[in-house]
Amino acid sequence: MKLYEWEAKHLLASLGVRVPKGQLVKDKFEGKGRYVVKAQVLEGGRGKRGLVRATDDPQSAIDEMRKSGVDLFLVEEYVPHDREAYISALLDRETGEPMIAVSPVGGVDVESMAQVRTFVIPMERGVRGYDLIKIERHIGIKGVGDVVNALYKLVTEYDAELAEINPLAVTPEGPIALDAKVIIDDNALFRHQDLLSKFNRAYKPESYVDLGGDIGIISNGAGLTMATMDMVKLMGGEPADFFDVGGGADRARVKEALLRVASNPRVKRIVINIFGGITRCDEVARGIVEAIDVIKKPVFVRLSGVNEEEGRKILAEKGIEAYSRAIDAIGDALRS
Fold it and tell me: d(Cα 90, Cα 120) in Å, to the nearest integer?
């Protein structure tokens, strides 16, 4: 889930990062002086589209941007600064550990610059003083400890896929985040419902899209669900739906998903592909068992991961086979 800029800055400020003083505006802004007006949209490249403006007439900028369909604006104090840098935190794909990416130059298209350098910081030890020394030397800015620690915490404790400050401005009072981007893993949102409630965001534990085929699909995680759909298609079947039950799916959510997919009259068979990380296989199995007598349609289940053996036992007691490989479950579904 992408956070709006104002949400990302609120979160960063709560973790000790300096951000400009600002306010959210829906209608009229009464302030006078130089401000920066930013349209609150979940898109990149706002500056190129004229949706970020430094101006002495913020209300006119708001009125102009509103013509683009924007209805929420962040109006911030203008912060004079000496220069800009880039800093972000994300997971390193090779090691699975948090990584800090920095550049002494910030702004548009920073990712394409050769000056970006990365620092992998293992979770078992966290950020140390020598990490900060290396980072500060590369970007030429001192006093970024609070920034690095906050970004690192967003990845390790808030399940952020990306936590980015671009630009990080250099001022006589220290670094300040002029812009921020935070993307939280959809499969971990159930762990952050208090945070979502602060932003008036609804927690949606599942995602369903009707696709028109006859093979019902239920899985956990958007990537695994899409991969399951692709396998069905490549093996000659037609997916009836995209149904991601999300991370941490319990028996009630799995039961609800099965009942919903089975209620589609086009669905003849249902493939359930679960990789248990956050999701527990035994909870999935209990949800399937509670729904199976109601749906009256064949179900082909692949279970792998946390509490896998217990989940298999629960299904076996109901006469349901649990496959080790998704390809086998899908193959039997298509042949049945």
Answer: 10
